[in-house]
Predict the 3D structure of the following.
Amino acid sequence: MQYTELYRPLAAAAVRGHAARQGLQLPPALGEKPLQALTEQDLAALLDLGNAWGVKLYRFKRGHESLPRVRQILGFLRSVQPESLLDVGSGRGVFLFPFLDGFPGVPVTSLDLLDHRVDFLEDIRRGGVDRLTALRADICACPLPEKSADVVTMLEVLEHIPDVQAAVTAAVRVARRYVAVTVPSKADDNPEHIHLLTKQVLTELFQNAGCERLHFSGVPGHLILTAAVGEEA
């Protein structure tokens, strides 16, 4: 893999965080500089070490920002310029990494149920992306205060959650301005997809949570919803 194909600062941060978590030694020039001060040579040296240590650098490969559903959500976020973001179920970073790359000043909290994914995101934070916070938590019992995130994203998430209404209600509670959602638009053979969430179903779920101003759009295979809450409603 060519390093130019990667989100290199994010990948380098993951390598530094991995080193700290595993007790591996980094040269001071690579471990102590602020992430933004690393030269191209520094980044390459860190990525070489990451390869040697078995860090899964392919996770940082560019290209996900071109996926239609990701591109549309990023376009929406550019239009509203969030001051902070809660990303529910960040998974492998398909949306999160393009967002971190394209919105360099925005604090992000990632919520995930799986320990290994939270550890992975914590490595990135520990390695220098200190505006990223990773929490292991269930959105249905979200520990964050009311209206603590400017925008909440739940992308390819709701179809996995047994109590969808609880998840939607929690997201609306935490959001100050918007909740953005993508879901599959047709049934598939993924056994982890336990709901098919149509426009009618999503409308009912968000109206039950107190949202009336809903905007639906779509791309092939996916339904996209942005719901205005709080002062934007």
DSSP finds eight helices and seven strands in the chain. The chain has a mean pLDDT of 94.
